[in-house]
Structure formats: structure tokens, C-alpha cells
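hey
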């Protein structure tokens, strides 16, 4: 094993908390998160993983990162994603960004559960697609039969929402309203809520068109920041 990988794994092991290693799988199994069957946990909390990533991201190359990302240990994979995000954010030219995104897309088989959480698809794919006019990348993911990849396409549009552009988000949310998995409904609702934070008129216009056919989870997330009277109107309209 490469000495950098040994060093990173050793650093994470030193930060591990046995009590957390026991707690995390139980936390996920209660339905509060998702993980891959057979995942191992060593109990390194996310802030500590970020510190390790910040220390080592410039020292590790993509080939070495691939080995870390394919680990059975959850914290290894998530730390690898944090390092990949830093490599993308610190890239000095588009060529390096292209390499990071290609690597990301070619390793989606390892980024298919709780590892993807909020940041990697938003900070890598979303930003890359927005800044380089490559919405096709997100659209390809949105057509995938893998629920997590579809969810990544939705979450990736957060970058557009932050910049005040909502059409891609509305397109993907509409496309996935009837998706059978509740985690997709949560992602849809979360994006709509953020859209409302930027422009409440846009959200209300969308809700007025679709709220009666929205899954309840999606609707509850979407209307969470609206006035109580308006929230009740939408909820009662479902009865």
C-alpha cells in the first residue's frame, strides 16, 4: 500500500471513537440515513474527516484516491470525497477540473449511498455544470435507473438555485414526482424549499401547479418555510 494511503488511514484510525463505530450503523438502520450492506464504521466524526482531507488532499493523486474511495470503510470513502471536493475547488485551470469530474463520474459505483450526501454532487457536479454550461451531465444522471444517481442530479441543481436559476430544478423535480422512493421526495422537497428561500413567488407558482400530485414528504419539505396559514392551505388541499 502507498505510504500516503497508509498515513491517511492511520490518521483516521487515531481519530476513531469505538462508541461511535457502534452507534453509527444503528443510527443508519433506524431509517435516519442510508448505507451500503457490509459497510464498516470506525467512528470518525465528519469534522475530523474534513481536517484529514484538508491536510492530505494535495498530497494524494487520483489513482490513490480511487483505492480510498473503493474501501469498505464508510469514513475512508467520505474522506476521499472531501479530498476530491478540495481538489476541484483548488484546481487552477479547467483541465484539472475536467480530470476531477471525469474521475467522479467514473467512480459513481462507490458514490451510491450515504456517501454522496449534500456536498459532493452539489460542490463538484453542480458547480462544474453551472460554470461550464454542461447541464447534459446532470440530465444523463437524471435518466439513470440508479435512484442515488437520479438524486444526485437533483441535488446538483442546488448550485443553480443558489445563483437564482430555477428551471433545471423544476424540470428534475417534476420528472421525479412519482418516484417510488421517499429519499427522492425528500431531495425534491429540499430543493423546492431552497428555491422558495431565493424566490417565494417561484415556489408558490410551482406549488399551485403541482401540489395536489406531490408526495406528502416532498410537499412538507417544500412548504416548510412558508407562512403557517399558507402551509395549511396546501396541506388541506391534499385532503
Amino acid at each position: 500500500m502507498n505510504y500516503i494511503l497508509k498515513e491517511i488511514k492511520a490518521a483516521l484510525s487515531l481519530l476513531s471513537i469505538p462508541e461511535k463505530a457502534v452507534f453509527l450503523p444503528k443510527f443508519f438502520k433506524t431509517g435516519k440515513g442510508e448505507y451500503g450492506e457490509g459497510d464498516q464504521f470506525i467512528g470518525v466524526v465528519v469534522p475530523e474527516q474534513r481536517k484529514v482531507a484538508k491536510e492530505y488532499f494535495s498530497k494524494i493523486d487520483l489513482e490513490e484516491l480511487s483505492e480510498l474511495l473503493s474501501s469498505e470503510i464508510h469514513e475512508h470513502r467520505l474522506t476521499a470525497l472531501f479530498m476530491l471536493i478540495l481538489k476541484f475547488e483548488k484546481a487552477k485551470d479547467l483541465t484539472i477540473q475536467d480530470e476531477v469530474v471525469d474521475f467522479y463520474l467514473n467512480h459513481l459505483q462507490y458514490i451510491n449511498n450515504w456517501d454522496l450526501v449534500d456536498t459532493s454532487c452539489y460542490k463538484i457536479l453542480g458547480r462544474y455544470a453551472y460554470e461550464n454550461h454542461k447541464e447534459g451531465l446532470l440530465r444523463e444522471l437524471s435518466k439513470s435507473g440508479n435512484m442515488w444517481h437520479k438524486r444526485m442530479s437533483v441535488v446538483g441543481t442546488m448550485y443553480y438555485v443558489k445563483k437564482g436559476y430555477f428551471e433545471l430544478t423544476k424540470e428534475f423535480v417534476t420528472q421525479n414526482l412519482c418516484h417510488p422512493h421517499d429519499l427522492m421526495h425528500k431531495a425534491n422537497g429540499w430543493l423546492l424549499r431552497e428555491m422558495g428561500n431565493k424566490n417565494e413567488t417561484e415556489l408558490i407558482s410551482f406549488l399551485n401547479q403541482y401540489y395536489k400530485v406531490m408526495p406528502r414528504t416532498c410537499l412538507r419539505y417544500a412548504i416548510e418555510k412558508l407562512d403557517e396559514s399558507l402551509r395549511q392551505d396546501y396541506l388541506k388541499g391534499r385532503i
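Residues 182-198 form the longest helix (17 residues). The CA atoms of residues 88 and 97 lie 6 Å apart.
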